[in-house]
Design a protein that fits this description.
CATH topology: Peptide Deformylase
Structural class: alpha+beta
Number of strands: 7
Shape: globular
Bound molecules: zinc ion
CATH architecture: Alpha-Beta Complex
Length: 170
């Protein structure tokens, strides 16, 4: 797969700000999409990825913090407990690192890729990543949690990245 790096949408792309639509059913097509999302996540050394990041407005996420791959459809937080703040990065906001205050434990209800209902009890990093990916389905990004100063830094960095990308294309 070398040389076929899949594209991840970057901050500024409107799809990242749209609320993703729930699935009626995980069809074969969506199963394929979940597999390519997982491949993209591993390829970019991410620990989570949401469908809008690859341009699809459906409520699908993949997560793997090194303890196994989760492919989830329509994930929903049904209960929260505690607080934690972790420095988070995002494949859609390259170069940025934002400390985000989230729940320490979350209880999630979702559907697996075979349309079976799934309940997950997550804590610490796993809970953090799940909340980050579910944020993506709501059109929310880590920059929304950043301070004004951090936001300015992120904007400057993205501008540089875009300039670089333009130069490379020439
Ligand atoms: Zn992200």
């Amino acid at each position: 797969m070398l040389g076929t790096r899949s594209k991840i949408n970057i901050l500024g792309d409107p799809i990242l700000r749209k609320k993703a639509k729930p699935l009626q059913e995980v069809t074969a097509e969506y199963r394929k999409l979940l597999s390519s999302m997982a491949a993209s996540m591993y390829e970019h050394s991410g620990i989570g990825l949401a469908a809008p990041q690859i341009g699809v407005g459906a409520r699908l996420i993949v997560v793997d913090i090194g303890e196994g791959l989760y492919k989830l459809a329509n994930p929903k937080i049904v209960k929260r407990q505690g607080v934690q703040s972790i420095q988070e990065g995002c494949l859609s906001v390259p170069g940025a690192c934002v400390k985000v205050r989230r729940s320490r434990r979350v209880w999630i209800e979702a559907m697996d890729e075979n349309n079976r209902p799934l309940k997950i009890e997550a804590k610490d990093l796993f809970a953090c990543v799940l909340q980050h990916e579910i944020d993506h389905l709501e059109g929310k990004l880590i920059v929304d949690y950043a301070s004004l100063l951090e936001k300015l830094k992120i904007r400057r960095k993205l501008k540089e990245l875009r300039k670089e990308a333009r130069i490379r294309k020439l």
